[in-house]
Amino acid sequence: MSSNDHLIIFDTTLRDGEQSPGASMTTEEKLHIAKCLERMHVDVIEAGFPIASPGDFESVKAVAQAVKDSTVCGLARALDRDIDRAGEALKPAKSSRIHTFIATSPIHMEHKLRMQPDAVVEQAVAAVKRARGFTDDVEFSPEDAGRSEFDFLCRIIEQVINAGATTINIPDTVGYNLPHQFGSLVGRLIENIPNSDKAIFSVHCHNDLGLAVANSLSAVLQGARQVECTINGLGERAGNAALEEVVMTVQTRQDMFSCNSRLDTTQIVPASRLVSSITGFPVQPNKAIVGANAFAHESGIHQDGVLKARETYEIMRAEDVGWAENRIVLGKHSGRNAFRSRLEALDVSFKSESELNSAFAAFKDLADKKHEIFDEDLFALVAGGDGASEEKFKLVSLNVCSHTGEIPNAEIVLSLDGEEFTASSDGGGPVDAAFKAIEVIAKSKAILQLYSVNSITSGTDAQGEVTVRLERDGSIVNGSGADVDIVIASAKAYLNSLNKLSAAAERAHPQLSQV
How confident is the model at residue 383, as a pLDDT? Predict the structure, then answer.
């Protein structure tokens, strides 16, 4: 293998990442993330599972239409209807891939599929052949490969390659394998399958034991040339291999890896922030690469060393992954064009003048409350304002009274379809009172699943960013709101969730498979 082997990065944030309970995304949100991944030069974007629901089909189709510089992939079980649906959704794509799978472990074949091994091979081969009718780029995954019998894996993989599969993905579906074990499995498969040179070998590892990245990298050392991963390690259960950790490990340790990705790594931190904002899953401060403390030094010894020579304690440059110093960009005297220009520099655009006007008015309101406005404040300001949901509910005013020893009370005025309504309620705290007052008017019957508060920047005048997750009749949505007043931010987030619930089409949760 030459030192310039291409490591293909296959991002499944929009598919497997969305299988995180509560991480369901709207089509507009998926498009926003897909364009961010395209700017990062991700090779393959798995946009969804088209058969899962009409909403998933439309999302995959929309991403296929919008993305030009990355391959767009749709997931399909080894079933004719799945493959046909994926092929239809991917028609607009400049470059498309169908990713089909079937379980191969004895426990899955016996208890889930209730199929004999010969029938599984036959179905896998038929699925690959059918997928080739839609695209020349077909990926096959033997689900639960990490617990499958080696000889059977060799047999089914050899036959699907003969049938036209161009990528063979080996998933550790339940995060069961250890690095040396999983890497050895991939190496043995490449060595023992006669036609292995006709396909690229890939890995898809889950993080149930905290080993997804380690298992993926072990497989790369053994010849895998595609890694399936997600931004921030998002994914069902404990998540998937984190894209940022895989990419930066390979790039940093070129003494060990005879390959490298082609990603623009300066887009990593912006992508991390975007995914966190949309899904409502905050990034822990000590998270590798993208955590707020990833390049911070508290120890005096470390600080002294870094000041003398950065390489003493930093193995990467913060700016190489998109970190930069907070920069004051705008103030209360800034005009509309300066506001628009700065947001465009941050890859935030507006679909209409009315959307720009609304955001600019919110900026002016923030500038009256907060003297120093940073890029992070601007991101928070426009979060949720990308047309992902119609604003059925709008906050007109909120008055909360909270005194020591007294029950908090909130009085709220909402605009509901253009008509104003007033309600008040007591609560266990000011936020609880505000939410209950909203419900007096909304009567949504939604269940609050998550309430999360994060400070956007430092300082006592920092905006608080609130995430609210609501569930109703199987639909789960995340809403966000930001304000220097945390109670108002909370009300905004709750209303943002209600608006998404109101606009949401019936969508089955995409957790129909575990590749």
Answer: 62
Cβ atoms 26, 63 nearer than 8 A:
no
Give me the pLDDT at residue 461, please.
Answer: 66
| pLDDT at residue 388, as a whole number | 41
Statement to judge: residues 364 and 469 lie in one domain: no
> What pLDDT does 307 receive?
44
Order across the sheet with 393-401: list the strands: 393-401, 409-416, 419-426
C-alpha distance from residue 119 to each of 76, 103, 127 (Å): 18, 12, 12
DSSP string, 200-243: EEEEEEB-TTS-HHHHHHHHHHTT--EEEEBGGG--STT-B-BH
74 bridge partner residues: 48, 98
Long-range CB contact pairs, 353-361, < 8 A, 24+: 355/385, 355/387, 358/385, 359/385, 360/336
- Whether residue 231 contacts residue 194, with contact meaning beta carbons closer than 8 Å, is answered with no
Kind and range of the H or E element at 260? strand 259-260
Is 273 in the same domain as 159? yes
Beta-bridge partner residues of 52: none
Which of these, 142, 52, 140, lies nearest to 89 by C-alpha position?
52
Tokens of 76: 């399909």
Q: How far apart are CA 99 and CA 168, in angstroms?
A: 10
pLDDT, one tens digit per residue, over 455-467 is 766 666 677 888 8
Asked if residue 450 and residue 397 are part of one domain, the reply reads yes
- Please tell me whether residues 48 and 20 are part of one structural domain: yes
CA distance 124 to 101: 7
The pLDDT, as a whole number, for residue 459 is 66
Q: Is the pTM higher than 0.85?
A: no
The residue type at 308? K
Q: Which domain holds residue 446?
A: 393-503
Q: Are residues 170 and 222 in the same domain?
A: yes
pLDDT at res. 376: 65
Distance CA 28, CA 207 (A): 28
Shared domain for 340 and 361, answered yes or no, is yes
Our count of domains for the chain comes to: 4
User: Smallest Cα–Cα separation from 25: which of 293, 378, 362, 279?
Assistant: 279
Query: In sequence order, what are the residues at sequence separation of 6 or more whose Cβ sits closer than 8 angstroms to the Cβ of residue 135?
Result: 87, 90, 96, 97, 98
CA terminus-to-terminus distance, the chain: 29
Q: Are residues 220 and 301 in the same domain?
A: no
What's the pLDDT tens digit per position in 425-463?
999 999 999 999 999 999 999 999 989 888 766 666 677
User: Under a CB-based contact definition with an 8 Å cutoff, are residues 59 and 47 in contact?
Assistant: yes
pLDDT less than 50: residues of the chain: 1-3, 297-307, 313, 326, 384-389, 505-513
Q: How far is the CA of 199 from the CAs of 166, 186, 329, 493, 515, in angstroms? A: 5, 13, 49, 47, 19
